[in-house]
Amino acid sequence: MTQLPWLEPGSTDFPSTRLALTDPNGLLAVGGDLSPAQLLAAYQRGIFPWFDESQPILWWSPSPRLVLKPSELHISKSMRKLLRKAPFRVTTDTAFEEVIESCAEPRDDQDGTWITEEMQAAYIHLHQLGFAHSVEVWDGEDLIGGLYGIALGKVFFGESMFSRASNASKYGFITLIQALDALNFGIIDCQVHTHHLSSLGAREVSRKTFEEYLVSYINRDTINRDSINRDSINKDTDRTQDTGIPENNTFETPYNIDALKARWPATLLSDSST
After folding, report:
1. How far is CA 123 from CA 8, 63, 208, in A?
2. What is the pTM (predicted TM-score) of this model?
C-alpha cells in the first residue's frame, strides 16, 4: 500500500505532482487544514482538495486534466436560442454562501456530499478575501442555478455548480465564460471529464501541459501587483516559505498570492452571438 505524504496544518510545502497516484487518479497528499495560504498554494500548482466527511482532507492532481479555453467556447443551437430569449438574470458574487450551500445539497446519484461544512467555511473565507467567486442564475427572485470557483490571474478553477431548472447552470456558466473571454482569461479548469463540459468545448490535456498553462496565465494582468496584503493570507510573516516551484517557473510565493487576485467581471451579460 502506497504511503501518501501528510501535510501539516498551514503548510504550503506540497509534494511534486509527479508523485500523484494513477489509481486513484491524481491522489497526491493527505492532511492539512484548508487555510487560505494552503488552498491558494495548492491551486497555484493545480492541486485541489476533494474528500467526504468520513475521510481526512485529500489533495488531488489528476491527469489528464479537463480545461476549457474561453475563446473556444461552443454553444449549441438550442442554447443559443435560450440565450436569445434571455429568460434568466445572471449575477456574480451576490449570493456566494447560498450558491455553495446549494452545490452541497445531496443529489439523486449521490449518497452524500464532498462539499462538507469545513469546505464551505474555507471557500467562504476565500470569497471574503476576494479569491473565490460565485455566479448566480435567477428566475425573478428565485435562485435556480449557479456555480463557484477560484480565480487567480487569468485562470478560473471551477469547483461545483447546481441547477434547479433545465439548463440553468449551463446558462450561467456560458455567460461567465463569455465574460472571462472578454477579460482575456486563458483557461478554465474543469478538473475531470464530463460530457456536459466537453459539449461546451472543454478538452483533456496532460498534467504537464496544464501546469504550463498555469505558469503562463496565473501571473498575467493581475491586480494589486504593488499592494500585497500579506497578513490577510498568512499571519506568519517572520519566515519565508519555499513554494516548491522550480526557479524558472513564474509562480508567486504564498506571501505574494494577493498580488494574483484576478480582475473579475463586475456584471455578467449573456451574448448569444458567440
Report:
1. 19, 24, 27
2. 0.84
